[in-house]
Amino acid sequence: MPLDLGAKGSCHIGGNVATNAGGLRLLRYGSLRGTVLGLEVVLADGSILNCLASLRKDNTGYDLKQLFIGSEGTLGVVTAVSILCPQKPNAVNLAFLACPSFSQVLKTFITCKDMLGEILSAYEFMDNGCMKLVERHLKLTNPVAESPFYVLIETSGSNSTHDEEKLSHFLEHVMDSDLVVDGTLASEGKKIKALWALRERITEALTCDGVVYKYDISLPVEKLYDLVTDMKVRLDTDAKNVVGYGHLGDGNLHLNVTAESYSHSLLDAIEPYVYEWVSQYYGSISAEHGLGFKKKHYIHYSKPKEAVLLMQQFKVMLDPKGILNPYKTLPSKAVR
Amino acid sequence: MPLDLGAKGSCHIGGNVATNAGGLRLLRYGSLRGTVLGLEVVLADGSILNCLASLRKDNTGYDLKQLFIGSEGTLGVVTAVSILCPQKPNAVNLAFLACPSFSQVLKTFITCKDMLGEILSAYEFMDNGCMKLVERHLKLTNPVAESPFYVLIETSGSNSTHDEEKLSHFLEHVMDSDLVVDGTLASEGKKIKALWALRERITEALTCDGVVYKYDISLPVEKLYDLVTDMKVRLDTDAKNVVGYGHLGDGNLHLNVTAESYSHSLLDAIEPYVYEWVSQYYGSISAEHGLGFKKKHYIHYSKPKEAVLLMQQFKVMLDPKGILNPYKTLPSKAVR
């Protein structure tokens, strides 16, 4: 499958497509907009729209299926999917690295793209706040020296000798140039799983930490962590923890704030500040999740009003009675 | 650029996006639906729709830009594009191989995906009829032994030593198993260009051969050449040449028929037979080019009538006066 994500144990493919799920390997295999080849959709009037082709190239008229990918079920219900699956890799390798600063995380990424190139299949990062949470709440062990940032790099390729050679040249280079201060490698199932758990189980650790305010954001990669730093300063002792992690290779940050209990004043301190912050750098306030009903009124921070009006016209055309997943994705009144 | 195609010397990026151009390396870098990150579009009422983000992940509302990709300018005019460019490869290698049958072309492709994996960037094929045309009309030289089929394989990677090793293991294997009877390799600019010319200049050679009837078709890859074989038998001496070439890795066939002069009876022998043939295997009658005005009435061979009706509703909504690239892409009357 070209898609892999933390929710893989419980999510459904129809939901993945309806929310245009991103996940861990978008960096390598691209978005569902490129990998979904066909869809069957049930429309609001109960009729079935069959766009279930499995062709890589098909330019016969408009690509209707795109409208349903990421529409969160508000335009139709996805009932069948045809998806392009890449060749299964013969070799998978993982590196878990400790970086002394975010600027080193970025430099490591640039080096990585150059030296690992086509075998790079994930470039994830987490800050030390995240590491402390998985250690405390889930009893996981940090496999490297404590550092402000950690990076998880995955390679997937057809030749294990070549891949290991590329990875060891890369590691030599980043250690010699002090981009990375410590690291560990894995090429067999159990250790790979243990290293991925450090990154994939952050969400679980956060829920153990208290009430969680969650933000899923896209930003230019060099600005990615500034938002976390600013938020830490802004919230200070009002928050229990302010942490950042995510899919750095895709410019996708998961910003999370925890507190002992729900507080309206804390929420007011975060929102709309976080959306204004993202908007000034032309980022996205909802990167790989949908707007749902919580964020539909904030859509104008990422989209101009002409675009929202056009979306509302599509909604009225395809679902005139508003019966498909009502109250989601779009504001019901015109955005000004 | 993630896109490369025969028309690279004269095409424009706005046109590429408007027609959802496919080309030579879709196999590796995917379609424009995945690589186009943002668009600026002028709508029928003269207003500008700004969807010019450059984010890899953005799920804030419906992805409006998708509607304009591949709509052939009938819904809006693309005036700016933001596109995701992959890392430039350090090493590029080409192999030009001679195959004794189409079934061997297919087996070579399967072997190729397994042994070259992530470095494979193009898998093109041409039949001997195409080779004879480029030899006769363009004075190009066949670099390998004359065979019923030829395959052009391109690899693009970050490490030339690794890539050459993969390629030579692959070649050893396909020669030993008699999938390939002769072959030549290229890793430097001039020879690479000369080998690509054999494939890229087929269109030019065809125009020198007489009147050309051109078809751009997607089919399940194992059925791809049967259409050419059937057409040869069907047209017999009525055609001067019936040849097939194309992007085998994407299931995309370019079927071409030439004749000394235009003949309505020859066209009637080809159409709608070719569209019926494609339709029975759920193929596409317009793979990487658009329907334009010549093929708009044949859309129902690839799309169900519910889909065409929905497309017509989009057209009416976005261009009520029908002023954008009129008479193209969609039939004006309802398809039954």
Automatic annotation (TrEMBL), chains A, B:
It holds the Pfam family FAD_binding_4. GO terms for molecular function: (R)-2-hydroxyglutarate dehydrogenase activity; FAD binding. InterPro entries: FAD-bd_oxidored_4_C, FAD-bd_PCMH, FAD-bd_PCMH-like_sf, FAD-bd_PCMH_sub2, FAD-linked_Oxase-like_C, FAD-oxidored/transferase_4, Oxid_FAD_bind_N, Vanillyl_alc_oxidase_C-sub2. Residues 1-88 form the FAD-binding PCMH-type domain. It is an enzyme of class 1 (oxidoreductase). Its cofactor is FAD. One of its GO terms (cellular component) is mitochondrion. Keywords: FAD, Flavoprotein, Oxidoreductase. Its EC number is 1.1.99.39. It catalyses: (R)-malate + A = oxaloacetate + AH2. Belongs to the FAD-binding oxidoreductase/transferase type 4 family. Catalyzes the oxidation of D-2-hydroxyglutarate (D-2-HG) to alpha-ketoglutarate. Also catalyzes the oxidation of other D-2-hydroxyacids, such as D-malate (D-MAL) and D-lactate (D-LAC). Exhibits high activities towards D-2-HG and D-MAL but a very weak activity towards D-LAC. This is D-2-hydroxyglutarate dehydrogenase, mitochondrial. The lineage of its organism: Eukaryota, Metazoa, Chordata, Craniata, Vertebrata.
